[in-house]
Structure formats: C-alpha cells, structure tokens
Design a protein that fits this description.
The chain is mostly beta strands. The protein contains one helix and five strands; from the N terminus they run ββαβββ.
Amino acid sequence: MKTYELVIKESQPTCGGKSPTKTSIQTVTVDDPLTYVKGLEPDSALEVEQAPDGTVIITGNHNGMPIKYEFTED
C-alpha cells in the first residue's frame, strides 16, 4: 500500500455567493487510486491520467457535477 495526499476538487453551483469549486485535502493509504475512487463514485465514468510529476488524476461526475481526485504520493 502507498500513502497519498488526496486533493478532491468538486464543482458546485455558485448560488448564495459560494465558490464554484469545493476543495478538500486528506491523507489516504490505498493499493490503487482508481479502485479507491470507484468505491466512492460507483456510477461515474472515470478518466485517469498521470501528470509529469507522478500525480494520478482521476476525473468523473458526482451528482451531475464534475469532480477531480488528485493523488500525490507522500
């Protein structure tokens, strides 16, 4: 298992003056980032890419809004 810093960027409606993006950061220990996200977003079509710095980026939709998971290995 590897430990990652996980940044989740979730789009949200801007009503009430809210930011268009809700961001949360957490530390997770997982075998495979894609399997982890599939558990969180079982009905979402997911796309995976790897940034030049090694960050694994997984994008999909959550309740009809775009969501991005960025896994950076600690």
